[in-house]
TrEMBL record, chain A:
Domain Anti-sigma K factor RskA C-terminal as annotated: residue spans: 114-254
Transmembrane regions: 106-127
Keyword hit for Transmembrane: yes
Pfam family of the protein (one): RskA_C
Species of the source: Albimonas donghaensis
The UniProt record lists the keyword Membrane: yes
GO process terms (BP): regulation of translation
Xref: InterPro entries: Anti-sigma-K/W_factor, RskA_C
Keywords: Membrane, Transmembrane, Transmembrane helix
MF GO annotations: sigma factor antagonist activity
Record's protein name: Anti-sigma-K factor RskA
UniProtKB/TrEMBL annotation, chain B:
Region annotated Disordered, chain positions: 102-124
Protein name: RNA polymerase sigma-70 factor, ECF subfamily
Protein keywords: Sigma factor, Transcription, Transcription regulation
Taxonomic source organism: Albimonas donghaensis
Domain (RNA polymerase sigma factor 70 region 4 type): residue spans on this chain: 127-179
GO biological-process terms attached to the record: DNA-templated transcription initiation
Length: 264, 188
């Protein structure tokens, strides 16, 4: 695709290799641009997609693999209205979740707000205190005194953990400055008799779920395992035998999930 | 073919509802198709650590582009798989280096691409592609299949076939041009 800068030239082989997937990175970027800008190239690409379509059919039938159970909640959370919670008539709690999300988006787009302030607002403003279900199951986390964080460590993430389609159960706040996760119980269901809740982080480039600890041990978890949380990471809570998963991976049902959203 | 046809029209219906913003139809679409697309992404990307994220992005794109699906031009599952495949190839070509190992056990001669065409949206299409693929030189056919089904780059193909990258390019284009002539011209 060597050509004058104002107009890229192409031949049908470029379109064919674009569909085949064998172009190198630079050529592939150029082809994507052409597809958007040049109707003729876009047409040639569609024609090649049609020619090779029968191969796609074989590809999808070859080796289906069930994706991890947390993928769908993560997708649903990114649909308009935060999806699951908003659709189920979980009325007031659902509305709180939506409002929380909207405010988080606003804060994400706002510069100059200190992480500690954003974190305080994220939990304090949106979720009325009387909803924090002050039963003994999950002790209230101590008020956080964020010591002046280093710039590198600054950052707060929030996840609203909810069972599929029902009201939120917890708000988890990940504070990189204090290296901790705080859990605010909203309407937690106690773990089944003789079982415990274990929290995991998945996605965000991790190969497998990483345990963050047992919820029954307190309202605050150390953050050691949560290296580099990113948008796209999901917190999940599974039901495990006493002492936690014996295998290092979730063994019981995943009962709550929530996407980590940057709050500052 | 009845089962395949029913499944196809069900997916097409779910895509149409999804295009109108129906999230429960989209959830059902995910339930019915996610294992297939996840398999595609794993196979192409060979990056289990990225596959969940790529699957998320794939379905979000399906959600936003569902209105562009044209049942006259593609089957629902191959339209969706093309999005998954494209996303996975973007990820491995544009974003990261990939462990280039898995190609050893592949036997594309018997690969899924040349499986019996009963899965195809239109058996005649699958049959004619199969026929045209069989008309290619053996190595050329394998290059096309390894590229399409396993996401191998020219460089990886060059390693595999002990050929310079430019030769791989030349042969790929020759093979693709021959395929085009066969598919678009008289049926063989």
């Amino acid at each position: 695709m060597a050509n004058p800068p104002d107009r890229e030239s192409w031949d049908d082989g470029d379109a064919a290799e674009y569909v085949l997937g064998t172009l190198d990175a630079e050529e592939r970027r150029a082809a994507a641009r052409l597809q958007a800008d040049d109707a003729g190239f876009a047409f040639a690409v569609r024609a090649w997609q049609g020619r090779l379509d029968a191969l796609t059919e074989g590809l999808v039938e070859a080796e289906p693999v069930d994706p991890p159970s947390v993928v769908w909640p993560a997708i649903a959370a990114r649909l308009p209205g935060g999806a699951l919670g908003a659709r189920t008539g979980a009325a007031d709690a659902g509305a709180e979740v939506i409002e929380l999300r909207q405010r988080l988006r606003y804060w994400r787009g706002t510069t100059g707000i200190a992480a500690a302030i954003a974190a305080m607002l994220a939990v304090g403003v949106i979720l009325p205190r009387d909803r924090w279900a002050p039963e003994g199951l999950f002790p209230q986390p101590p008020a956080q005194q964020a010591e002046a964080p280093s710039d590198a460590a600054r950052g707060t993430y929030v996840a609203v953990l909810q069972p599929g389609g029902a009201a939120p159960a917890f708000v988890a706040e990940v504070n990189l400055a204090t290296n901790s996760i705080s859990l605010r119980p909203l309407r937690p269901e106690p773990a089944p008799e003789g079982r415990v809740y274990e929290m995991w982080v998945v996605g965000g480039g991790r190969a497998a779920p990483v345990s963050l600890g047992l919820l029954a041990e307190g309202g605050e978890l150390p953050l050691d395992a949560l290296a580099g949380p990113t948008d796209g990471s999901v917190l999940a809570v599974s039901v495990e035998p006493p002492g936690g998963s014996p295998t290092g991976a979730p063994t019981g049902d995943v009962v709550f999930t929530g996407e980590l959203i940057r709050a500052d | 073919m009845r089962v395949a046809t029913d499944a196809r029209s069900e997916l097409a219906g779910l895509l149409a509802e999804t295009a109108k913003g129906d999230q429960s139809a989209f959830a059902e679409l995910y339930r019915l198709t996610s294992a297939k697309l996840y398999g595609v992404i794993l196979r192409i990307s060979r990056r289990p650590d990225l596959a969940s994220e790529l699957l998320q992005e794939t379905y979000l794109k399906i959600w936003s582009n569902a209105g562009r699906f044209d049942p006259e031009r593609a089957s629902p599952i191959s339209w969706m798989a093309a999005i998954a495949r494209n996303r996975a190839i973007d990820a491995i070509r544009l974003q990261s280096e990939r462990i280039s190992a898995a190609a050893e056990e592949l036997e594309p001669e018997d690969g899924p691409g040349l499986a019996a065409p009963r899965h195809g949206p239109d058996p005649a299409d699958a049959m004619s592609l199969r026929t045209c693929m069989e008309g290619l030189k053996s190595d050329d056919r394998r290059m096309v299949l390894l590229g399409y089904l396993y996401g191998l780059s020219r460089e990886e193909l060059g390693d595999r076939f002990a050929l310079p990258v430019n030769t791989v390019k030349t042969r790929l284009r020759r093979a693709l041009a021959a395929l085009k002539g066969c598919l678009d011209g008289e049926p063989a």
